[in-house]
Design a protein that fits this description.
CATH superfamily of chain A: Response regulator
EC number (chain A): 2.7.1.-
Structural class of chain A: alpha/beta
Largest sheet of chain A: 4 strands, parallel
CATH topology of chain A: Rossmann fold
InterPro entries (chain A): PTS_EIIB-like_sf, PTS_EIIB_2, PTS_EIIB_2/3
Distance between the termini of chain B: 17 Å
CATH class of chain A: Alpha Beta
Oligomer: heterodimer
Strand content of chain A: 15-25%
Organism (chain A): Terrilactibacillus laevilacticus
Protein name (chain A): PTS sugar transporter subunit IIB
Structural class of chain B: alpha/beta
Number of domains of chain A: 1
Largest sheet of chain B: 4 strands, mixed
Helix content of chain B: 25-40%
GO molecular function (chain A): transferase activity
Chain lengths: ~100, ~150
Amino acid sequence: MKTLQILAVCGFGVGSSLVLKMKIDEMLKEENIKAKVSTADVGSASSTPCDLIFTSKELAGKLSNTVKVPVISVSNFIDKEEIKIAGLHAIKNLL
Amino acid sequence: MLITLKNWIQKENIKLQQQVSNWQEGLQIAGNLLLQNKSINPSYIDDMIQAVKQLGPYIVIAPHIAIGHARPGKNVIKDDISVITLKQPVKFGNQDNDPVNIIFTFCATEDSKHIHQLQQLAYLLEDNILLNTLKTSTNINEIFEVINQ
């Protein structure tokens, strides 16, 4: 089975998205799900191959028009529980 | 695994209970600490403010906490991170996480080198007791100790 590719996206792909990636990684580990989580900036996200995108509410609106994969929006990037509630179902659907 | 960085926020990069009238001023004060450290060129601060104007207030990544930054690149001299707390919180326009009373700013020379600093930051943000101390303290030495413990 191929590894699930998840993209955490923020404005520049170096700050908030990195924090978000850490929390997604922790959540996946707790759920025993293997996936590769990368970060990207909002401009290059649409040309980065992935199966699922996590981002903020503000950027989700911009992204959902330009990408074909599901876009999960999270308002608190350090709240693992919110990340889980928002994204786990979609992740499991892709497995 | 958590790699503990000693003094990942330097004492001179902390300012507590600052008075600002808007979010731009908050980013300016926090960014000035990076500037004083010669970690950025002055225009990096404008870049951070412009980023919020262009991309929205997503830098308020958790309730009451903003992490300002701009793109790694020519305006960054070295990796650095600063934090200020506000006497009166300000709104960034983020419906879920406003108002903000803790503002971090950071600058990175390249995409991945600062990852350990942000890791420390992510752990700090999970610690509600520490965050509460940070919000209310007026003692830089105390904050320096608890952040870097």
